[in-house]
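Box 3.1 A note on notation
Throughout this textbook, protein chains are presented in two layers. The first layer is the amino acid sequence; the second is a token string describing backbone geometry. Keep the layers aligned when reading.
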Amino acid sequence: MKLARIINNVESNMQSKDDAELDLLMLGKSLNSFGRSLVRGIMTGMRKLPQMAIKTKKHIGECELFTMYFDPILSALLSDPDKNVLLRWSNVTSDETGEMRPDATISKLCQRDFGPSLGFGQVKLARPSTDNHALCHDLLRLAIFAKDTVDVNKLQAAMTFQINGYNITFFLTRLRHDGMYFMQEIGQLTFPRSLEELASFVNLKNIRTLLMV
């Protein structure tokens, strides 16, 4: 697989990041729009991730977790400024969430303002205080956010994701019958913590999961 080979060459110092970016851009020209978006995300991750994983997890905060490790790939896949769609790590309320603040919101832009919310995300650090109760509470919040935005904005479905440490799970919520909502897990991944792990992350199974999102 050419994408994995390019990242492996960078990780093993056989190719510079500048040369790898040129190869990735050429590779993207032969792919569809989703494939090109994924290649852009991998390229940004290649630039942002440390060479080796940082061992001291307690020194990594929530903001650093999602901006350094998750945003490069997620923004490439979930944001599309040409279609007025943005992934925002905003932690602010919206019309659909009331007083609750999701950690991330996928927003549709309406002229110069944020319009309907198309999806949401919740983030938790992998720490002893993050137990099953905390994760279940976040999952319940996501279910409420998704249901409310489907109702308020008359959406066919809403996409949500839950981050726990470096693990992420994606869900799709639909209104199947009157008053009956179906929240389905559509994929689960462990995101890379370093350039070294990015090389092994780029495999066919993970790429298929990301392209389903």
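The first strand starts at residue 85 and ends at 88. The beta strands are 85-88, 104-110, 113-124, 157-164, 167-177, 180-190.
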